[in-house]
Amino acid sequence: MEVIRKMDEVYSDLLKYQTALEEQNNKLEESQQFIFGVLAAMSDILVVCDQTGTIEDVNQSLIELTGKTSAEWRGHPLVELFADDISRKQAELKFNGLQGQAIHDCEMQIRMANGSSMPVSVNCTARFNKKGKSVGMVITGRPVGELRRAYHALQEAHEALKRTQQQLVHSEKMASLGRLVAGVAHELNNPISFVLGNVHVLERYAGRLKEYLDAVHAGRSGIELAELREKLKIDRILGDIRPLIEGTIEGAERTRDIVDGLKRFSAIDREEECEFNLVEIIQRAVHWVTNITSESFQVEMDLPHFIPVLGSAAQIQQVIMNLVQNAVDATAEVKSPRLRIQAKIEKDKAVVEFRDNGSGILPENFPKIFDPFFTTKPVGKGTGLGLAISYGIVERHNGALFAANDAHDGGTIFVLNLPLYQSAKN
Ligand SMILES: Nc1ncnc2c1ncn2[C@@H]1O[C@H](COP(=O)(O)OP(=O)(O)OP(=O)(O)O)[C@@H](O)[C@H]1O
Ligand SMILES: [Mg+2]
């Protein structure tokens, strides 16, 4: 009985061991399957070698690349992987001397299934056993061709993008040049055509006057001369001459103003730089503009005594005069037209605000107000160059000029920033 009981115990122990063994076996199979799956899915090539450089195993990528099975590779020297003598020599040198240190991204040629070679970026690290003893190495490699192709594609896309950008910049430049030329042509066309028209009329009049004077000098009789005077409309000519000449002068002056504006716009007439008090310039600019405007236009100024700025005082005065003149024009229809000018020093810059209670700027016009020849004023009233020139001047002084609609008062706010003159501040 005792023996039978013992046998039963041993048998049940055996059964337990068998189940445990089966469980462990399953786990082992699972993890082997996992490792195999990972190795098979790798797109990089993988080679495992022993210490002498003999291949122990390879992955699916290398099998596909070289056309040899893992059984065919096993036991062969690693150098056989490489296609040319240089790569083989390199491999011998590198992998033989490998003692714990790794090799990174070394480009080598691998022999492919069809006999040709493929550049591969090779990495190699030493492999250790449980006790930390080096037992061989693991080599991985990524075909460089793919990287190169991706790199070339990227470079080409970048080049194409650069070309498109250059074209865009170029066509934008051409378009704005076109707008500028069209604007100049349009602006100049008017005064030049009436100057030309007037000169033609004067030429005709000169002919008739000469005819009349010839008759006077020829000593014709009073009656004859009176008839001739009537026929040649000499009296009308004499009345016309002055307005014709005045008109011609006005046209010529307008042409000169436009050219002046253009010259300033392109900064041909650049002046010497000097230190000046911005406050004085504001006061002078306001004085000049309000001198010739209606008395109802009120300017309220809140200014410190002294704001030192470096640059061209005349040009900055021109900027401020244009801002004040714009405010005068914008408030023409307003009952009590008003402009508030406030200047202050903020850190290292001067900030001047111009707030009017005029018409404000339509949202669709905001992006255009600094464009040359953009004007909403009637023909002959504004050239549309004022803000464009001002913008250029302020930029050359390393400052900024921008506009906003005044949400509280209605009207427009222009803000002018200019850097303070440093040495005067110390
Ligand atoms: N304070 C303002 N309020 C409302 N609109 C303004 C104001 N300042 C400028 N603008 C708008 O911006 C446009 C361009 O102004 P800019 O000073 O460049 O030219 P302009 O005044 O029309 O002509 P110019 O200054 O050559 O006589 C003006 O026609 C106007 O529509
Ligand atoms: Mg203006």
From TrEMBL:
<keyword id="KW-0808">Transferase</keyword>
<keyword id="KW-0418">Kinase</keyword>
<feature type="domain" description="PAC">
    <location>
        <begin position="104"/>
        <end position="156"/>
    </location>
</feature>
<feature type="domain" description="PAS">
    <location>
        <begin position="31"/>
        <end position="85"/>
    </location>
</feature>
<dbReference type="InterPro" id="IPR000700">
    <property type="entry name" value="PAS-assoc_C"/>
</dbReference>
<dbReference type="InterPro" id="IPR000014">
    <property type="entry name" value="PAS"/>
</dbReference>
<dbReference type="GO" id="GO:0000155">
    <property type="term" value="F:phosphorelay sensor kinase activity"/>
</dbReference>
<feature type="coiled-coil region">
    <location>
        <begin position="144"/>
        <end position="174"/>
    </location>
</feature>
<dbReference type="InterPro" id="IPR003594">
    <property type="entry name" value="HATPase_dom"/>
</dbReference>
<dbReference type="InterPro" id="IPR004358">
    <property type="entry name" value="Sig_transdc_His_kin-like_C"/>
</dbReference>
<protein>
    <recommendedName>
        <fullName>histidine kinase</fullName>
        <ecNumber>2.7.13.3</ecNumber>
    </recommendedName>
</protein>
<keyword id="KW-0597">Phosphoprotein</keyword>
<dbReference type="InterPro" id="IPR036097">
    <property type="entry name" value="HisK_dim/P_sf"/>
</dbReference>
<dbReference type="Pfam" id="PF02518">
    <property type="entry name" value="HATPase_c"/>
</dbReference>
<feature type="domain" description="Histidine kinase">
    <location>
        <begin position="183"/>
        <end position="422"/>
    </location>
</feature>
<keyword id="KW-0175">Coiled coil</keyword>
<dbReference type="InterPro" id="IPR036890">
    <property type="entry name" value="HATPase_C_sf"/>
</dbReference>
<dbReference type="Pfam" id="PF00512">
    <property type="entry name" value="HisKA"/>
</dbReference>
<dbReference type="Pfam" id="PF13426">
    <property type="entry name" value="PAS_9"/>
</dbReference>
<dbReference type="InterPro" id="IPR003661">
    <property type="entry name" value="HisK_dim/P_dom"/>
</dbReference>
<dbReference type="InterPro" id="IPR035965">
    <property type="entry name" value="PAS-like_dom_sf"/>
</dbReference>
<dbReference type="InterPro" id="IPR005467">
    <property type="entry name" value="His_kinase_dom"/>
</dbReference>
